């Protein structure tokens, strides 16, 4: 049946039934027609989406969310699907940890190793390590050892042990590095070598389900597709059915809308925000004024002539291109020995490419003028900084109004407790979700800008010149936000081991912070108030999530009914659930018991005054006898009625239902958002809603 070129790659047998193999198009078509075959789809390449962050989150709750020398939560196992791990990092020291949980079935796989110095020796912190994929042919290591750095970074963010005096480039971010749940165990699944193949990801899900993980963290993703065509969505559904919580990065497609990835409702989708720390660079101008830039810059540029990139153009008709300091449009003679102010356009050239080009031309430094930025640019090859706002205006005014302009660039220094924080990172992907207009994504945000964590010493941190290596690196992305949320989920799981994945997600979402450290609404990167499209429910608060009061729970059967409501066929359902089921849909796809609410305008009826009804139910996980009253904040032109407006619970785990009726005056309203909050004497259970997407 198979050609000589075909070969089996993976056989999935624990969480779901199936296999991956090299096949010709004809073979794939032939297999798709066989009885019992639900679907055949091509394996796709997915993309990888960093001391202070946990202290910042704790500052909202008045203290640390962990007892640093406590073994609380040591039985929680977090699986990390990424580029692997560097096990010798101090962040994975297992000193003081108890025995590995007896339920653990995983392995520390070194079966492909021929050089024993590459062997991964698991301990009580890293209790399992597997590697996958035919891409390993081009990989230095044939096990789960990390040569990229990304997986080491995310794993240590989740559960890294305490490391004193951790720093980037000897001074930046110096402090105690730790994961969000240091007592948790780590199981490493190297699925990116460096490509992240979807068939490898499914194999890792399959093994992780068998091994006995409690949480799965994936800082990777791909272009959105239907749930049944996405390996992460399929794997996560099977994991959820086994009680495993799955957390994924939202993607780095921002600030554009409809860029969200990993948007299945059974996944926690995590966007990125800033923390209250910045790496400040003093730029002293020749007029004795000093402006502040932002950069990870270990270098100094002594007093030098300051020029605009456009003034160093090699051709009079290429001044615009020269102002961007990209390509071959700069005259080396005009640049040599000078500090150059460049307009920064990431779509034209990266900051590292600009540094490399200017260094080759003999420049002494570079200043990148950026409209908005929420992360520090690395200047590892040439002294420099990024400037925005009034600082950029000050430099431009000096250049315009002065002769013989000069500047000095100092090495960066660390400033903490900056305000406002958090701010939503500009790169963080945003909704609405093009896969399903009835689900709000991202679910929430977590620190993802300029995060310091452990790094692989195999991966240089610079792109040009003599390679620079470090044990800790500072990087940004929703890849860094996801492990913060994964650690928070592990923290909640350690205190509430019987809670379902949906209950944990609900606790994280309904207790999320929506105010920054100035007690103002959290802002987007451009200074505007962040909408739920941008930040979901808000910023995670691990301590508050321990005691949410009420949770919006969802069973695997209800997720299946949701898929039926989305008109999934029996074959599609079998692929997602692993079961041959008949469809029993919800009354409406809006009635999935999600902690947030989206009502597209198409769901309203009537030409003028329009109405829509949504149903929800909550489970009491607080005091046995408790009373909650509804509080509503609605945009202009919208009336919200909740029936009943009061919920009276008689016991723990009692479930009560309620209905929300939205009435919209379409002559005054296009779209908007608000909140529904159930309030008791001890708890506020907050849900965000958005109306009128299309």
From TrEMBL:
Molecular function terms from GO: serine-type endopeptidase activity
**PROSITE patterns with a match to the protein in the record:** SUBTILASE (PS51892), SUBTILASE_SER (PS00138)
The chain positions of domain Inhibitor I9 read 4-49
Question: Carries keyword Signal?
Answer: yes
Sorted keywords for this record are:
Hydrolase, Protease, Serine protease, Signal
| InterPro entries in alphabetical order | Peptidase_S8/S53_dom, Peptidase_S8/S53_dom_sf, Peptidase_S8_Ser-AS, Peptidase_S8_subtilisin-rel, Peptidases_S8_3, S8pro/Inhibitor_I9, S8pro/Inhibitor_I9_sf, SBT
**Could you name the active-site residues?**
82 (charge relay system), 150 (charge relay system), 479 (charge relay system)
Annotated GO biological processes are:
proteolysis
Q: Where is the Peptidase S8/S53 domain?
A: 73-537
The question of whether Glycoprotein is a record keyword is answered with: no
Q: Which residues form the Subtilisin-like protease fibronectin type-III domain?
A: 591-688
Cellular component (GO) terms are: extracellular region
The record's family statement is: Belongs to the peptidase S8 family.
Q: What is this protein called?
A: Uncharacterized protein
